[in-house]
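name: query_chain
kind: protein
chains: 1
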Amino acid sequence: MSGSGLSVAVVGTGARAEIGRHVPAARPGSRVTAVVDTSPEGRVRARTLFPDVPDAAVHADHHALVAAGGVDAAVVTTPDHTHADIAVDLLRAGIALYLEKPLATTLADADRVLAAAAETGTALYVGHNFRHSAVVRTMKGVVDRGEIGEVKAVWVRHFVGHGGDFYFKDWHADRRRTGSLLLQKGSHDLDVVHHLAGGYTRRVVGMGDLAVYGGITDRRERTGETMPDWFSLDNWPPASQTGLNPVVDVEDVSMVLMTLGNGVLASYQQCHFTPDYWRNYTVIGTEGRLENFGDTAGGVVRVWDRRHEWAAEGDREHPIGGVAVGHEDADLAAVTEFLAHVADGTPTLVSPVAAREAVAAGALAAQSLRAGSVPLAVPELPAHVLAHFAAAPAAR
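structure:
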């Protein structure tokens, strides 16, 4: 297939379907040739997002897509709780898969998807695009160059200032469909913790609460709407939000403690009602530490590697490049990597095993916090599944 263009389907036309619009630029000659959405509104939206796709190739479900044939790969951006069933069906149909993160909403479903990929040999890629962001690449460079010595601890604070609009006005607010925002939102950061620390979580404790949004009684269905329809920076302060999802039972503030298999200790804190919206990482090694200030272009990663008192500016700093807002550059890099992997077998920065481990940490952290913060151990993948992905051209 090397050098050829690919026919790609987009499954799900919500806010993240924009990923599919990168296909032609990611691999010249490739194009979106089919779209799937289960709602009439979504199928109308498909014709706006992908106007070159003929009406006959806009399907009401993924089963119709499989029956129609003619696609090499699919980008799946459906609600989280549908990921596993759709992924297994497409993998068994031999359709290479870009599955938007999180891989699944439960560890059992995540393992089911990986088992299907191992059994069929069909390419599976999970959209942990944040590894491709400039801030993560900059921090990873500091770690890999040994500027802070051997990593021993990673602390992450995630200020989700847009949380009320992003996650509490549609299906994301319902744990039956999301599991936890430690998965939907936190899986990016949990994956990057593993990426920077060079290991996977093996013991986890969670703590959290529905502290603000659970008390808001103004709620309604938003049939046919997507997040850009209601997002506004004027929706402030958090308790003044209106039109929340009828079901709101996911936590809006969460904290996680992790012990990784290589002994690194990590923590992750997530809050959905802060005024500001960015991530702050601190990585501590045996010879220094790093911390990012800002997580898009214009920000910096500062390094402290001398002994002294408080010095906010650090001992040196590395500028963060990329886009000034959002993650369009990381999306393009991820789609490019996926299509190259499918067509040429090119190794990938993200492995399905790493995506599974992010689900494991987030899902078990949510289970822990809902059970009184009991510590939980992360089970290993079956040996034959690990062996399959160990032989595949993908990075840890």
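note: The longest helix spans residues 352-370.
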